[in-house]
Write a structure and sequence with these properties.
single chain, mainly alpha
C-alpha cells in the first residue's frame, strides 16, 4: 500500500548497512544495499541514505507496483526486489498468488495478489524466497544472514498486514 513505503524502506535499511566491499559478494561494493554491480556509474562511497531511498522508490518499489499490493505483501515483494532482483520478486509474487508467471506485474498479478488471504500469500513468498536462496552458490557464505533477514521481514510483514 502507498502508505507503507517509509516503513518498508526503513526495514530494508536495517539490513542494508553502510559501505561494504566484501570480495566474495558478486554485487561488488555496496552502501545501503545499493551495489556497484547494479549501479556502475554511481559513486557508491558518496551515496547518502536519502539517495538510497530515492533509488529504492524509483527502481524497486514503483516498478514492482508495491503501492497496489496488500499491506505486508508489499514489504516482502519490495525486500525481495532489493535483495534478489525485481524480476525474481515479480515471479515469486506470481507463483505465490497463482497468477500467470510471465515476470511482468500487470493487472492480473495485482488482482491475484488481492484475491488470496494475505497471510497465505506472505508465507508462500517467504518459502519461495528461501528456496531460491538455498539454490545459490553463495548460500554457504551468506545464507544464514539472508535467512535471518527473511524471518525478520516476514515478522514485519505480519505486523503491518
Amino acid at each position: 500500500m502507498e502508505t507503507n513505503f517509509k516503513q518498508a524502506v526503513a526495514a530494508v535499511l536495517e539490513h542494508e548497512g553502510g559501505y561494504v566491499d566484501d570480495p566474495h559478494d558478486p554485487g561488488g561494493c555496496t552502501k545501503y544495499g545499493i551495489s556497484s554491480r547494479a549501479y556502475p556509474d554511481l559513486d557508491i562511497t558518496s551515496l547518502t541514505r536519502e539517495q538510497a531511498r530515492e533509488i529504492y522508490r524509483s527502481d524497486y518499489w514503483d516498478p514492482c507496483r508495491c503501492d497496489e499490493l496488500p499491506s505486508g505483501v508489499d514489504l516482502l515483494v519490495f525486500d525481495c526486489a532489493v535483495n534478489q532482483g525485481r524480476h525474481a520478486a515479480i515471479v515469486i509474487l506470481q507463483q505465490a498468488t497463482g497468477a500467470a508467471v510471465d515476470g511482468i506485474i500487470g493487472p492480473q498479478t495485482i488482482t491475484h495478489a488481492h484475491a488470496g488471504r494475505p497471510d497465505i500469500v506472505m508465507r508462500e513468498i517467504v518459502a519461495l524466497r528461501g528456496t531460491r536462496y538455498g539454490n545459490l552458490s553463495t548460500f554457504p557464505r551468506f545464507g544464514l544472514g539472508w535467512m535471518r533477514r527473511l524471518a525478520d521481514m516476514h515478522q514485519k510483514a505480519i505486523e503491518i498486514a
